[in-house]
Amino acid sequence: MNQTILYYDKNAEEFCEATKNADMSFCRDKFLYLLEQRYYIEGKDTDKLKIHILDAGCGSGRDAKAFLDMGYQVTALDASKKICEEAGKVTGQEVFCMQFEDMEFRQEFDGIWACASLLHVSYTEINEVMKRIWDALRENGVFYASFKYGKGMRNDKGRLFYDYDEIALKNIAVNSCFWVEDIFVTQDVRNGRENEQWINVLARKIIP
């Protein structure tokens, strides 16, 4: 992970510029539908300011800003200090520099959005990170994550990627006490990357 963080520290401006305009509205809308449905089912007030989202591995701050603009309460974090600085400019609020392994939140969030971020967590560490995500969510909280579609670990220009297919992703979610709502494959939305595929999971926290 340190090698990957170093890559982002060195390439923060270039990376954020390349990803800040990627249209993730399709996945965001699916995530928000489940998030607001949770409040409707429980008969709670759906005031967006009371719905707290954690953008875990926020990158450029693109999605955190989108959630903020829609009226949600958002906490954003990233493991790269330089990325946090860039994301702070976009969101207009502090972005916390923190690795997933260091999260110690306890039932603080209604939803956790981990878009293209957990894909850098090794297979040996993913279960511990998923536990920390589970701990951070309130009961029935909604979790979203996306990974490159495939199998195995890859080194791409100094970044380590851990890929998943449907079976592997579902197993990790279920074993971490999440109820899987949907697993779906999407194409990369960045220009010139349309041939790359992503696998996405939407799940709810359940109490064993």
Task: Describe the overall structure.
By secondary structure, the chain is of the alpha/beta class. The protein is built from 7 helices and 9 strands; from the N terminus they run αααβαβαββαβββαββ. It has helices at about 1-10, 10-20, 25-40, 60-70, 80-90, 125-135, 165-175, and strands at about 50-55, 75-80, 95, 110-115, 135-150, 150-155, 160-165, 180-185, 195-205. The model has no long low-confidence stretch (mean pLDDT about 95).
Index terms:
single chain; 208 residues; Rossmann fold; seven-stranded mixed beta sheet; two-stranded antiparallel ribbon; 7 helices
Task: Please summarize what this structure is.
The protein has 208 residues and is of the alpha/beta class.
Shape: globular
What share of the residues does DSSP label as strand, in percent? 25-35%
Estimated structural class: alpha/beta
Count of the separate structural domains: 1
Secondary structure topology:
Blueprint: H1 2-10, H2 12-19, H3 25-41, E1 52-56, H4 62-69, E2 73-78, H5 81-91, E3 96-97, E4 109-114, H6 126-136, E5 137-148, E6 152-156, E7 159-163, H7 166-175, E8 178-187, E9 197-205
Parallel strand pairs: 1-2, 1-4, 2-3, 4-5
Antiparallel strand pairs: 5-9, 6-7, 8-9
